[in-house]
Structure formats: structure tokens, C-alpha cells
Design goal:
Binding site for beta-alanine (chains A, B): 61
Number of domains of chain A: 2
Main location (chains A, B): cytoplasm
Catalytic activity (chains A, B): (R)-pantoate + beta-alanine + ATP = (R)-pantothenate + AMP + diphosphate + H(+)
Radius of gyration of chain A: 20 Å
Number of strands of chain A: 10
CATH topology of the largest domain in chain A: Rossmann fold
Oligomer: homodimer
CATH superfamily of the largest domain in chain A: HUPs
Number of helices of chain A: 11
Largest interface: A-B, 29 and 29 residues
Helix content of chain A: 25-40%
CATH class of the largest domain in chain A: Alpha Beta
Strand order of the largest sheet of chain A: 1-4-3-2-6-7
Shape of chain A: globular
InterPro entries (chains A, B): Pantoate_ligase (IPR003721), Pantoate_ligase_C (IPR042176), Rossmann-like_a/b/a_fold (IPR014729)
Largest sheet of chain A: 6 strands, parallel
Mean pLDDT of chain A: 94
Pfam family, one (chains A, B): Pantoate_ligase
Structural class of chain A: alpha/beta
């Protein structure tokens, strides 16, 4: 498995592979890999000659500096998982490599080692809800870095986890609006045996928090059951609020019943094509998200 | 010369050419071609195996519906110029082909045949001046369509005219921020023998307007001379205002003395790397722009 830290080195490698007619699958990640990520690599390997995984904790998609500082960085362990999974190349650039070195003339504080992009993305109704509402600027950062990674890697196919449902919807729309000639594949969320969605942030949970963390997926399962048995969205929202009041360690940030593609709130089940139930909740210092789609 | 109206047909053609190892140069235009455009094709031919010209009057970059309606559409004449110039392929899509067909569920008025992008670009300080200030939303439309064309054509090099100086600055920044792996070439403005910058909009000038149109370039030349002989930017701005008062058929929209890359106003000549003098002026129903860089 090749490990690249520079854009130029990765590009030279990919150019040679392309000349041999190889197709390229791409899995963008922020590292701290778990089995969920490996399932994306597996999906890529099944459809492409070559699988590339990027590991980049993208500073411009964090609205909370503490969250950025706490985000686990485990490149060696990540590579030790990727190699046996059959990943062909890892791209692990620094922020300076991705965005260029900061220079005096751009008016940045000296604490920033990298050059912030000037261009800003606004995804309108797709980002004025849920994650976008609670993490202002998050999807601008996601859109910019994913575009940049797509342009650097130029894959045939790309693989995202459904756990970040809104991210998938935003990236899907971005690919339409900007004409990226890449197939987007959204892969199912992997769960621990007790139902907790796999997440890099799970490792920041204290033992007693980890023990009650499956309460989120239990809430989603309850909500789905209630909706399918004829309860209205308003009734289900009240039930979920009560469900989280039973576990006061949680602070529920949002629970939304939305159309899985437009991400807009569903008032009555008949309005939806595909329904997504989405939760964000704080547990100790950790913010967790999860969703189910049906 | 090949003429393509569909993205899929162009992509099939380009895929075959790429497999033969050919490099691709790309000239995006809105048609109504003149010698200035042909000089971009020439520049492309000198550096690439294959030259592609797109002709697309992009509705989302027009803030003024009358300007969009009046914009000349002359595909046959354009192709008759491009073929002898050695252009290899023309890409002339409809708005529906570029943006997709409008559908009932996206809330558009039925008068729009195409699907407007949801994603919006904001170039911050690069667009809050000059064209961006007087044509709100213009550079969003330019950024989206140029990104989309780049992703469709995937050229090695692209060629823009310096006449649209702010467009070049915006596209250059976009290419950095989104990591486009394409060389950008800005080519000198071509002028008629009396100094008028070549422009597709010139053909909308009435004869008497065409006769006085070179007043714009005379103003730029005067301004450059005054600045180089030691006059301050403030003095020169007063002189240019007076210069246009001599020709009351013009309505001067802006005259700016800016840094050619940051596009920010220069208060003193010592502050500038490269200086750009930029004018927009209305003459009858036509809005003309021009610039000189030194």
C-alpha cells in the first residue's frame, strides 16, 4: 500500500495507473478508521481496479475548535487497518498541502498555518436544517474539501457512509450542480452489536457513556415503529423527546423526520418519498449523530 | 470539426481522444465569436493536441433578463469561424442539457425550462467590487458553469480573455480553492483598429454609438499615462469622470484602479503589484467593459 502526503506524488502515481486503463474508487475519510470505513473500501474494491482512501481532518469543516482539537488522529493505526483491507493508496496531506501555506498578505492570524479558501459554498435548503443549522459553515467546508479531493484524485466512483446522511445529500447535489463525472455510492451504516452506529467519535466516550450510547438507535427504532404503525410525525416527536428525558445524560440536539433527498421536514407520512429519521445528541463531551431511512 | 449538443456524446469523443494520449485545451465562450475568441483557440492549438470550444449562453450568470434576451446567438456563424481556425470540437448544449429539465417538484415557475442549481458560490472580496457589485449573482453563475464545463471537458489547459479581468481573477481563485488540475492562461485583449476592445456586445451598438465607442479605451490610455507620470489615483479618477462628461452618450458605471490579482482598490501606486484600470460604461442599450494592466 502506497502512502502519499503530497498532491504531486499522488497525481504521478494515479497518472501511471490511469495509463494502464485502471478504474479508480475513492473513499474520503477523516481517519480514526473503524469497520464502517473498511466497508467503504470493500465496496470500492468490488467495483474498481484501484482503491484510494484519503485521511484528512479538514479544519474548515469544524465550526467548534474544541471538536477539531479533540478529533482523533491515528494515521499509523489507520494504515494498519487499510493495508490488509486491500486499499491500494492512502492520501494523507497536511492542511498546508491541501490549502497552501498562509502568507502575510492574506490577513490571516499567524496561528493559522494554512491559507483559508476565499470561495464559499451555500447549499440553501439542504444546509439550513439539522447538521447545517447546528454547525454553521460545516457544509461549506465539506463541499470545498470534497471538490478539491475529487479534482485531485479524479476517481470513477466514490463511496460515502449513510451515517452522514445530510453530507451524502449535500455531496450528491454538489455533484449534479458542478457536473462531477463520478458515481456516488452511499453505503449502509455499520453498527456495534448493541446498535450504536460506528463512529470515530465513539472512542471519546467514557465507559458509562458508551454503555448508554445505544439509546440513540433505540430511539430511532422506536420512532420508525411508531410511524409505521400510523402515529403522526408530531406524536412521534413527542415520544422521542420523552425517550431522551429517560436518560438525562443525553442532551438531544435535534430529532427530525425528513424526506431523505430534499431533507425537508415531513408533516404527514404520505408526503414523503423515502423517509429519514435523523438524530443528533450530546453525551458528555461527545456529539453523536445517527439516522434510519425507510 | 465535431459539433456536440449532448454531454454524453462529447464525453465519449473525449474519452477516445484521451486514450490516444492527446492533451486537451479548452476555450469556454458564450458564442457570438470574434477575433478575440479565435486568438484563444490559436493559443490552445499551440499548446495542445486537441482544442475544444464551448458555446453556451449561460442563463444563470445574467442578472438582467433583457441582457440575456439580447445576447447574440449565432451558432452557425460561430462554427463557420471555428472550423477554419482549427478548432477540433464544439460543445453547444442547451440550458436543459447543462442543468437538467425543470420538474414540478422543485418549485420553479413553468417559464423556466431548466433546473436551477441549488449550490451558490460566493467569492467574497473578489466579487464585491466592479462587475460583481453591479451584476449581483454574476460570478456565482460564472463559477458554477465554469466548474461544470471543467468537469465535463477535463482539459489540461484552459484559455480566457483578459478583457474579462475580474472573471479571470475569480476563476483563478476558484481553481486554487477547488483544486482543479488545469493550467489557466489569460490571453491579451484584442482591439479594433480604433482601440475598441473586441466584444460580442459590440454588434448591438448603433452606428453612431460604434463611432464614439473608442472613447472608453482612450480614457484607459489617458489614465495610464497620468498614473505613470505621477498623478495620484484620486486625481486620475477625477480626470476620467471629466473625460466621460465630454461624451454624454456614455453613462460611466465605474472606473477603478485596482491590484490586478486581489482586485482591491489602490490608494497609492506604491501599494500595487500589477495595476489594473477597469471601466464599465453604458452606451445606448449596450454595457461595455474594458481594462488595461501594467
Amino acid at each position: 500500500m502506497h502512502i502519499f502526503h503530497s498532491i504531486a506524488d499522488l497525481r504521478s502515481y494515479l497518472r501511471l495507473q490511469r495509463q494502464q486503463g485502471k478504474t479508480v474508487g475513492f473513499v474520503p475519510t477523516m481517519g480514526a478508521l473503524h469497520e464502517g470505513h473498511l466497508s467503504l473500501i470493500e465496496a470500492s474494491k468490488a467495483q474498481n481496479d484501484l482503491s484510494v482512501c484519503s485521511i484528512f481532518v479538514n479544519p474548515i469543516q469544524f465550526n467548534n475548535p474544541d471538536d477539531l482539537a479533540r478529533y482523533p488522529r491515528t494515521l499509523e493505526a489507520d494504515c494498519a487497518m487499510l493495508a490488509p483491507a486491500g486499499c491500494d493508496a492512502v492520501f494523507a496531506p497536511s492542511a498546508e498541502e491541501m490549502y497552501g501555506k498562509a502568507n502575510a498578505s492574506n490577513g490571516l492570524e499567524p496561528s493559522n498555518a494554512y491559507n483559508k479558501p476565499i470561495l464559499k459554498f451555500d447549499f440553501g435548503p439542504l444546509e439550513h436544517v439539522m447538521e447545517g443549522q447546528f454547525r454553521p459553515g460545516h457544509f461549506n467546508g465539506v463541499g470545498i474539501v470534497v471538490s478539491k479531493l475529487f479534482n485531485i484524485v479524479q476517481p470513477d466512483r466514490t463511496y460515502f457512509g449513510q451515517k452522514d446522511l445530510q453530507q451524502v445529500a449535500v455531496v450528491r447535489r454538489m455533484m449534479i450542480d458542478l457536473g462531477f463525472q463520478i458515481e456516488l455510492h452511499s453505503c449502509p451504516t455499520l453498527r456495534e452489536s448493541d446498535g450504536l452506529a460506528m463512529s470515530s467519535r465513539n472512542r471519546n466516550l467514557m465507559a458509562e457513556e458508551r454503555a448508554i450510547a445505544p439509546h440513540i438507535f433505540k430511539g430511532l427504532t422506536l420512532a420508525k415503529t411508531l410511524l409505521l404503525s400510523g402515529h403522526t410525525p408530531a406524536e412521534v416527536k413527542r415520544e422521542i423527546a420523552a425517550h431522551f428525558e429517560q436518560q438525562p445524560s443525553f442532551r438531544l440536539e435535534y430529532f427530525e423526520i425528513v424526506d431523505a433527498h430534499s431533507l425537508q421536514t415531513i408533516e404527514a407520512m404520505a408526503d414523503a418519498g423515502q423517509t429519514a429519521l435523523c438524530i443528533a445528541a450530546h453525551l458528555g463531551k461527545v456529539r453523536l449523530i445517527d439516522n434510519v431511512v425507510f
